[in-house]
Amino acid sequence: MSDAKYFQRGKIQELRAELNSDKRDPKHTKKKTVMKKIVANMTMGNDMSPLFPDIINVMNVPILEIKKMVYLYLINYARSKPDMAMMAITMFIKDVEDPNPLIRALAIRTMGYIQVEKIIDCLIDPLSHCLRDQDPYVRKTAAICVAKLYMYDRGLVESERLIEKLRDLLNDPNPTVVANAVAALTEISERSDDIQLSLNLSVASKLVTALNECSEWGQTYILEALMYYVPQDSGNAELLAERITPRLQHANSAVVLTSVKVIVYLMNYMEKEEDISNLCRKLSPPLVTLLSAEPEVQYVALRNILLVIQKRPEVLKNDMKVFFCKYNDPIYVKMAKLEIMFCLANAGNVDQVLSELKEYAAEVDVDFVRKAVRSIGRLAVKIESAAQRCIAALIELIETKVNYVVQEAIVVIKDIFRKYPNQYESIIGTLCENLDNLDEPEAKAAMIWIIGQYADRIENADVLLDDFLYTFLEEPVEVQLALLTATVKLFIKRPTAGQDLVPKVLKWATEEVDNPDLRDRGYVYWRLLSTDPAAAKAVVLSEKPQISTETDNMEPALLDELLLHVSSLASIYHKSPTTFISNYKPRYLMPSPVLQRSRSSQFESNLPIPQTTEVQEQKEATAANRLSFNGNGYDFSGFQTGNPYATEVVNRPEIRQSQVTGGADLLLDL
Amino acid sequence: MISAFFIYNQKGEVLISRLYRHDLKRSVADIFRIQVISNTDVRTPIITLGSTSFFHVRHENLYIVAVTKWNANAALVFEFCNRVINIGKAYFGKFDEEAVKNNFVVIYELLDEILDFGYPQNSETDTLKLYITTEVVKSERAVEDSSKITIQATGATSWRRSDIKYRKNEAFIDVIESVNLLISNTGTVLRADVSGQILMRAYLSGTPECKFGLNDKLLLDKDAVMKSNPLRRPNAVEIDDCQFHQCVKLVHPVVNEIGRTRVEYKINIKANFSPKLYAHNVVLKIPTPLNSAKVEVKVGAGGKAKYAPAENCIIWKIPRFQGQSEFSLSGEAELSAMTHKKAWSRPPISMDFQVLMFTSSGLLVRFLKVFEKSGYQSVKWVRYMTKAGTYQIRF
């Protein structure tokens, strides 16, 4: 076929004439051609809505290909012409009764997309029938259609008891129907204020059985839903995880990563360390295998690996080498690998890591090189035994005189000096050779800090500072603050060297600058120096707290939250989904007698634990009130209503609602 | 889940546009064009603006783009984009701008079928081809046929019809391994691993269960079981504990940058596998500095080498390379003076090759059994091939 020719702007008038042409067209080939032109124009973004009445006439042409194009047209324009859309109803009503299951499903599917009140009204009845259709293909289409309808009108779905019918489909003999019903229920519960999905053991177990029979996508939907099963018993958690592990071997990375998510989630409810470490061992190989997938999938995997290894350091601890960057890896893969390499580095493998990082520091991509240099410095802070070699590597890099490399190195050397005071000062001389090239605030501030800190050893510290002070008023605040403090340090350590500089800087800081922080700090120093020099010395040269790379680690509560979102966008950005998606229900580990209160809970241990029984009662009461599931002779498949968060939110004021930001700017710079 | 799906050409023109949810308008297509296609420095396959996220995959001269406003499963979205590409290739032979434009109506039909309200549905090409065809007029079909299709599309073995018959029952197993190797400039092996695929092409009647056994420790007690499949089924078998027996080839490069004007190359290559086997299509790409003015290369007995200025490298091709043999190349690049110094990042030497009937991991298929109700005889074949994955040598 060569339909490319239809990709040119068509005039409404001409198209209308062609649609209504009286010419003989026994096989409807002319109609088909004009429909193709219209669809091509729709694709290009040209407004085809004026043709609506003419299209309605075409609906009766008994050719499936044309029908599908007409439906596509309706999906695109019905909302802008609701009155016209009415005219299509007879056609739809005829189609949902069609003996051919493909046609029935097509009609239901299309009607669900056309969110126009009159059409939706006509959809309710046939939809209820289709949910019980004898053909599984129709049932699975109808299941998704309930979710469509829910987005359009929640009240309608509830009043028509469609959710109950959807829930019945969980017992469907066909696995694809079950999977689609699960997907629809999951989405409805994630968007609803009062419906909460929660699976009991028997439903969860039934779903796991259905897993083996499902398509890859269906497996993903079911695995996602299993996140709503809260184990009440450690053994059950272990057993369920064990039954899911074969999914780790699947060729589809979505199945693999979603399985990882469920298994890591279930680990929170396991008591035996042995079970956990057994499972951890099983997680490593499939994660490594994902690294030979397409680069985009690798990226998703890498970002998630970084989360998993922070929570479960056993995973991948011996697999450092697979994270070495290949020359032709895309930049986003390289950056993600670098972070994992740093995280996995330990005294045993640090030499390998270091020689890799040196290699990367010689590449061309500026961001990548910077990150490599910075990682070398962080390694020195993280692993004491390697500090000497890391510093040697940094000095080597500084000697290349590549501007951004030098600046990045100086920033991390400052941290090394903080961590290991009085050990590596011999390199200060080398650093001072590069002062003229510093043009980034962070590097400048770091260098100035070093000069101030070692003012007593750097003979010409006053000259160096004076050079920096020359542009004091033009500098960004962080550099000004560093200059102010460094000058005061110099004065305290070597009064004669600093006596000319200090008054100048204090005067600038307090009189010429608008920034309140800088001004306040200026006044504080001034008063200290003028009233009690001894106190000034004690304050300015006070003992500094130890630094460590531990502070780089993710906050445990956030880590736990993100692990509930493995494989999702949130896991890639390492940001709670509530920060970039509006009206997103926050998720956290649900309480259970076997929930292991690990690091994260120590962190939150001062918070009262919500009283489970009360929540349970409340949930059940609401469930009984709203949908009366128990009374209808259904087996209780665990779909409950009521908002279990209600009590918890009150008890846990720190839930990060306050952090909701615009998101756009934050996320773009990743 | 996925709210919209677009295909663009390189110029940013929309070739396919399908909205699945009303939380987006078609105008989001323009945002992607501005933010990604017109941007020369795209550093991530996902961008999020506000709460709208764009996932993209590039293929040939196309951008395949999925848009969501939800905290979507990213792996699923990318798998879906790649699946669309594979379905496109299966339907049209090639999936590029021309193919998309020429078949846009079929692509819309497919998209309506494989993605419902943003949820990927059955996407097995074999099943789809039963009811979405590129041939003209075939739309009216018997109801019984349709029921058969729907059963298959929703069944446990959605990729295979149950009533397939072959006169001669044959099964072919291909074991294809890719060797990934990274050697540092001092000659130490930084990374050496093999990732393999076992592909089975089955011409077997009915839906038999096939079992095959490997010589691998892990799986010996638990043979991999998979249902037979007429087409490629990339069911990756995990054999991570398998040790890498021997490095297939060792390359010893000596590259000296002599001052600012000359670079000398001396590269030896030796095949470490059995002399009974041959490697085919061995290609080495040896990067040269960006400012090379003139490059001369000499090779001994093995193959041909020439300088490809467009790719900034020397390409050394050895069509047939016997095991245990050794070749060498020497060369010299003269560099022109450059107005502004730009560091040469010294990309690694990369290498491509194929060795038939050899698996670098030592993996062997021990047996293949076919179990079918009628108990027919079948003929089975096994082929092995090792090829280069990412095979890089730093110098």
Automatic annotation (TrEMBL), chain A:
Subcellular location: Endomembrane system
Domain Clathrin/coatomer adaptor adaptin-like N-terminal: 11-532
Signal peptide: none
Keywords: Membrane, Protein transport, Transport
UniProt GO BP: intracellular protein transport; vesicle-mediated transport
Organism domain of life: Eukaryota
Function comment: Adaptins are components of the adaptor complexes which link clathrin to receptors in coated vesicles. Clathrin-associated protein complexes are believed to interact with the cytoplasmic tails of membrane proteins, leading to their selection and concentration.
Protein's UniProt name: AP complex subunit beta
Protein species of origin: Mortierella isabellina (Filamentous fungus)
UniProtKB/TrEMBL annotation, chain B:
InterPro entries: Adaptor_comp_med_subunit, AP2_Mu_C_sf, AP2_Mu_N, AP_mu_sigma_su, Clathrin_mu, Clathrin_mu_CS, Longin-like_dom_sf, MHD
Subcellular location: Cell membrane; Membrane, Coated pit
SUPFAM superfamilies noted in UniProt: Second domain of Mu2 adaptin subunit (ap50) of ap2 adaptor, SNARE-like
Chain ranges of the MHD domain: 168-394
UniProt keyword Cytoplasm, yes or no: no
Topology term for the membrane: Peripheral membrane protein
Keyword Protein transport carried by entry: yes
Superkingdom field: Eukaryota
GO biological process: endocytosis; intracellular protein transport
Pfam families attached to this UniProt entry: Adap_comp_sub (PF00928), Clat_adaptor_s (PF01217)
Gene3D superfamilies: 3.30.450.60, Mu homology domain, subdomain B
Alphabetic keyword roster: Cell membrane, Coated pit, Endocytosis, Membrane, Protein transport, Transport
GO cellular component assignments: clathrin adaptor complex; clathrin-coated pit; plasma membrane
Record-stated family: Belongs to the adaptor complexes medium subunit family.
The protein's name in its UniProt record: MHD domain-containing protein
